[in-house]
TrEMBL record:
Organism in which the protein naturally occurs: Pseudomonas laurylsulfatiphila
One function term, GO molecular function aspect: NAD+ binding
Deacetylase sirtuin-type domain sequence ranges: 1-250
Gene name tied to this protein: cobB
Family annotation (NCBIfam families): PRK00481.1-3 (NF001753)
Enzyme class: transferase
Membrane-spanning ranges: none
Cofactor: Zn(2+)
Domain notes: 2 residues (Tyr-65 and Arg-68) present in a large hydrophobic pocket are probably involved in substrate specificity. They are important for desuccinylation activity, but dispensable for deacetylation activity.
Protein name listed in UniProt: NAD-dependent protein deacylase
UniProt function note: NAD-dependent lysine deacetylase and desuccinylase that specifically removes acetyl and succinyl groups on target proteins. Modulates the activities of several proteins which are inactive in their acylated form.
Length: 250
C-alpha cells in the first residue's frame, strides 16, 4: 500500500484541513464521545447539547458549557494546531474547517477558520437571537455543583445560550456554503480527528473525493479508504501533522 507522503502537500494548490475533536484532544479537551470524568461523569454530553435540554434546565446546560469554556481557556494549542497554522504559510491556499467550538486554531495563528458548529465564545439570546453583549471574560465556575444560571439578554431579558450548533439544529447557512465552496475547490483535504458520525459535516471527505481531491484521514483509528487517492494515517494528530509538515519542507 502506498503511504501518503507530506511532500505531496507542496504540489497542492488549495488544501482544506477539516478537523474534529481529536485535534484538540492532546490539548486536554475531552472529545465529545470520550467518557467524561469528575464532575460530569454521569452525564451524556449529547443529551446536554440540545435546545430541549436548555428549555428544561438552562442552568445545567449553561453550567456544562461554562465548564467546557474553562477547559478551553486553560488549554493551549498543541503541535497539530501549530503545524496546521504553519502549513498556511507553505501552500498557496489553506482553508481550515472545524467542527470544534474551541478557539485553538485561531490561537495557533490560523485566520478565517470556518466554524461549522459555532463557538463557545459567541453566546447569543435564546429568545431574540441577538449576540450577547455582556462580557464573557469573567468565567463563572460552578462552585458547589454544576448549575450556573445563564446571563440575561440586555434587549429582551431572554436567557443567553451558547453560540454553538446543538443536535437537531441546522448549520448556519452561510458557514455551510463557505465550507462546501472550499471543499469542492480543494485538491487535497486532510481530515483530522473526527469520528464522521455527525451530519452534514461527515459528508465533507466524500464531497472532496467526488470533486477530485486527494483525501487523507489522520485518526487514532484506521479509516476505510476508497481508490488510490484516499489515505488513512493512524496515530496522534499532534505527531502526524508535524511529520507531514517536516516532509513537505524537505
Ligand atoms: N489524534 C487523532 N485523532 C484522535 C485523537 C488524537 N490525539 N484523539 C481522538 N481522536 C479521534 C477519535 O478516534 C475519533 O474518531 O477523534 C475522533 C473524535 O470523535 P468525536 O468525539 O465524535 O468528535 P467529532 O467527530 O469532532 O464530533 C463531531 O459531534 O458531538 C458533536 O457537535 C459535536 O462537533 C462535534 C461533532
Amino acid at each position: 500500500m502506498i503511504e501518503f507522503h507530506g511532500q505531496r502537500l507542496r504540489d497542492a494548490f488549495h488544501v482544506v484541513v477539516f478537523t474534529g475533536a481529536g485535534v484538540s484532544a492532546e490539548s486536554g479537551i475531552p472529545t465529545f464521545r470520550d467518557a467524561l470524568t469528575g464532575l460530569w461523569e454521569r452525564f451524556d454530553p449529547a443529551a446536554l447539547a440540545t435546545a430541549d435540554a436548555f428549555r428544561n434546565d438552562s442552568a445545567l446546560v449553561w453550567g456544562w458549557y461554562e465548564w467546557r469554556r474553562s477547559k478551553v481557556r486553560t488549554a493551549k494549542p498543541n503541535p497539530a494546531h501549530l503545524a496546521i497554522a504553519e502549513l498556511a504559510r507553505l501552500v498557496a491556499r489553506l482553508t481550515v474547517i472545524t467542527q470544534n467550538v474551541d478557539d485553538l486554531h485561531e490561537r495557533a495563528g490560523c485566520h478565517g477558520v470556518v466554524h461549522l458548529h459555532g463557538s463557545l465564545h459567541s453566546p447569543r439570546c435564546f429568545a431574540c437571537a441577538r449576540p450577547y453583549e455582556g462580557t464573557t471574560d469573567q468565567l463563572n465556575e460552578p462552585e458547589d455543583g454544576r448549575r450556573i444560571d445563564p446571563p440575561r439578554c440586555r434587549h429582551c431579558n431572554g436567557k443567553v445560550r451558547p453560540g454553538v450548533v446543538w443536535f437537531g439544529e441546522s448549520l448556519p447557512e452561510q458557514v455551510w456554503r463557505d465550507a462546501l465552496a472550499a471543499v469542492k475547490d480543494c485538491d487535497l483535504l486532510i481530515s483530522v480527528g473526527t469520528s464522521g458520525l455527525v451530519q452534514p459535516a461527515a459528508e465533507i471527505p466524500r464531497i472532496a473525493r467526488e470533486h477530485g481531491a486527494v483525501v487523507v484521514h489522520v485518526n487514532l483509528q484506521r479509516e476505510s479508504v476508497q481508490g488510490e487517492r484516499e489515505f488513512s494515517l493512524v496515530g496522534k494528530a499532534a505527531e502526524i501533522l508535524p511529520r507531514l509538515l517536516a516532509q513537505a519542507k524537505e
